[in-house]
Design brief:
Strands 6-7-8-3-9-10 form a six-stranded mixed beta sheet. Strands 2-1-4-5 form a four-stranded antiparallel beta sheet, with no helix packed on it. A hairpin with a 5-residue loop joins strand 1 and strand 2. It is built from ten helices and ten strands.
């Protein structure tokens, strides 16, 4: 069997001020899985995400990507394998034009100019921004910026994607576009979000973090059936109910067939 795409083994992380952000977290994600990491504010979700490409390194335990342990000596290889789309696209966009932003990663990979140009063209086409090449990302709408940020990762063709609050501050059409993009990817996808409705639309498995501890790991339907625990974990029940209704309708359509 191939190695898990993502593996956390007994990972703990404590910030310099003494805050224990992750407390002996263990899980494995297989290639091609789409998994949501959910939990209330301060649960450790963003800290976990930053361990995927070595922005943070585990104080105890180990993180591995495609069987490669994340460490100072493996950062280059790991970062080629994991594409992170941050919550705020302004944290990801810094060049004078959209094309330059999207080309930055492939150029740093040492790819030939023709291949870089092809990847920029293909990435912008896939996110619906063909014709935006010469525009400044900083003059675009928030939803368009989010699409450019996705294109900057898409151009690097990583086998693993990690999204930090992908639905945050998006209007309904932009959110639907991001949902569709995630659903269409054959790659391994990790979605860090408080939006349980979005998680239900894009992931089949959810991991719940509370105060740095992993308290649940299982199917979306299984989590939504445990109302008392979701209340205890301060998860958004209104969003949960809307997502449950979509799952129920999906089941009905499947049974009808």
């Amino acid at each position: 069997m191939s190695a898990p795409a993502i593996r956390f083994f007994d990972v703990s992380y404590q910030y310099p001020d003494g805050t224990l952000a992750l407390d002996r977290v263990s899980f494995a994600i297989q290639p091609g899985e789409k998994v949501g990491i959910v939990g209330p504010n301060g649960a450790g979700k963003s800290t976990l995400l930053l361990h995927l490409n070595g922005v943070l390194l585990a104080k105890t335990g180990a993180v591995s990507i495609n069987g490669i342990e994340v460490g100072k000596k493996t950062l280059r290889e790991v970062r080629r394998a994991v594409g992170v789309v941050f919550q705020n696209p302004d944290d990801q966009l810094f060049s004078t034009t959209v094309a330059e932003d999207v080309a930055f990663g492939p150029r740093n990979m040492g790819l030939p100019a023709a291949e870089v140009d092809r990847r920029v063209k293909d990435a912008l086409e896939l996110v619906g921004l063909t014709g935006f090449e010469r525009r400044s990302a900083h003059h675009l709408s928030y939803g368009q910026k989010k699409k450019v940020a996705i294109a900057t990762v898409l151009s690097m063709m990583p086998p693993i994607w990690a999204f930090d609050e992908p639905s945050a501050n998006l209007d309904s059409p932009s959110q639907a576009a991001v949902e569709q993009f995630i659903a269409s990817r054959p790659d391994t996808v990790l979605v860090v979000t408080q939006d349980l409705s979005f998680a239900a639309e894009t992931c089949s498995r959810l991991i719940v973090l509370v105060e740095g501890r992993l308290v649940f790991d299982g199917a979306v339907e299984e989590l939504f059936a445990r109302s008392e625990l979701m209340t205890q974990w301060h998860l958004d029940m209104e969003r949960r109910c809307r997502a449950c209704e979509r799952i129920r309708r999906g089941r009905s359509r499947t049974e009808a067939k």
